[in-house]
Design brief:
Helix content: 40-55%
Largest sheet: 3 strands, antiparallel
Strand order of the largest sheet: 1-3-2
Oligomer: single chain
CATH class: Mainly Alpha
Radius of gyration: 10 Å
Shape: globular
CATH topology: Multidrug-efflux Transporter Regulator, Chain: A, Domain 2
Strand content: 5-15%
Structural class: alpha+beta
């Protein structure tokens, strides 16, 4: 599980963009009790392989 900042770095986007994608349902994530997100590595792989529905 990766933090939104780690995902942003891997994808070359801003952390806020990753959070926006999570809130819009474009990336699957787990919300922790502290309100932060953790994103499965499989979601990042899907995006990198072109399997996401991002616009």
């Amino acid at each position: 599980m990766l933090r939104s900042g780690e995902v942003a770095e891997l994808l070359g986007v801003d952390r806020h963009t990753v959070v926006k994608w999570v809130k819009e349902g474009m990336i699957r994530a787990v919300r922790l009790p502290n309100g932060r997100y953790r994103i499965p590595e499989s979601e990042v792989r899907k995006i990198l392989e072109g399997g996401s529905n991002r616009n």
